Amino acid sequence: MNTASQRRNVGPVRALITDLAGTAVDYGSSAPAGVFVQLFQRHGVPITLEQARGPMGIEKKAHVRELSKVPEIAGKWQKVHGAACTEADVDRMYQEFIPLQLDVLPKYSDLIPGVLETVRELKKRGIRIAANTGYNREMMEIVLREAARQGFVPDAAVCATDVAKGRPAPWMVFLAMEKLDVYPPAAVVKIGDTVPDIDEGLHAGVWTVGVARTGNMLGLAESELAALPQTELKPRLAAARERLRAAGAHYVVDSFADCLRVIEEINRRLERGERP
Fold it and tell me: Which is it for strands 251-253 and 156-159: parallel, antiparallel or unpaired?
């Protein structure tokens, strides 16, 4: 077989890189969203949960910065503080954010139903698992510690502060691939519940899977979602799926548990010579 043919013959999927909050743990991605609301309230600037969720998926200091630029929030800040929010303000707020986030993470680190069973099956099939996240190292370690108590231990883990730039840049995906020793990108799947997750995967050239039901797009804890009337749930879920499709996700699913069928489909596409 010549070199060109070897390059074309990628083989099956060999690695899955999963986001944490809203994808693998913390049904509804409640931990970060609530803390951003609390953080801005401390500075006399009330924001909504919907606003707090807007930039979700990116590195958390960048998240604070992006929230400060939202016109409505920026206007409130100007009114309360008599000046625009500066980078120094963002720095101070991020330092406040860290202990607030660390404090609540253990309460919001339950595995999402189906994750553990799916991971076990993926590993039986020889697929390696990495986690990546917009959290910093200290935050990620808390989540992984709690996840390990429930049986979920990824083969590698990468956080936003491990790389020069977090999402939507591809560097966390590339670092995870290096840690797993898996390449090329066509043999890798990235799954996450935010648009930056999808952007990250697309920029890295891997297959991307968006999670619509359990994460930030709906933003509902499992009990809240169960209590929602179907007449309200269906259009909200449809809108969440459409946002992820519009972002360019190769597949959109309800939860991590759908990984198996998606990877089987990707493997069939790889056999036909298709690439992300």
Answer: unpaired
